[in-house]
Amino acid sequence: MNDAEFTEDVKKFGDMLFRLAYSCTGDMSVCDDIVQDTFIKYYRLGKEFDGEEGKKAWLIRVTINCCHNHTRFWWHSRRSELPENEPAKEPSDHDELISLRDALQKLRPAYRIVIHLYYYEGFTAEQIAKMLHLSVSAITSRLQRGREMLKKYLE
Prior knowledge:
CATH topology of the largest domain: Rna Polymerase Sigma Factor, Chain: A
CATH class of the largest domain: Mainly Alpha
Order of helices and strands: HHHHHHHH
């Protein structure tokens, strides 16, 4: 892989991996670091993949692993967020998106990741199963349970 191919892959997959990292961690301040770590590992690997799908699956899997590593650090549970200023009132669509985002963050990561990949990234259950090394039935179960939990949180 040359530098031009690497730059093209960063442009092509960077936003998707950032959204996935945010979905996993719920903390926008660490998403850049997680995505950067993923691309560093990708660059060092220097492997040629069987196609775009293989490359994309590998990048997603590594991003999820980096997110899990981030949440395992001891300081993660002991830090506290600075209070934010009260944002200005926005249209109700924005309020609904915020409540959906908050409900998603309440889900366990196993459900949150599957829902993110299915609804936000447009992957099928079969594709997600291959990426996460799970059975299709496990993915569909997680999707169903995740939807039920979201429904409870949003009511």
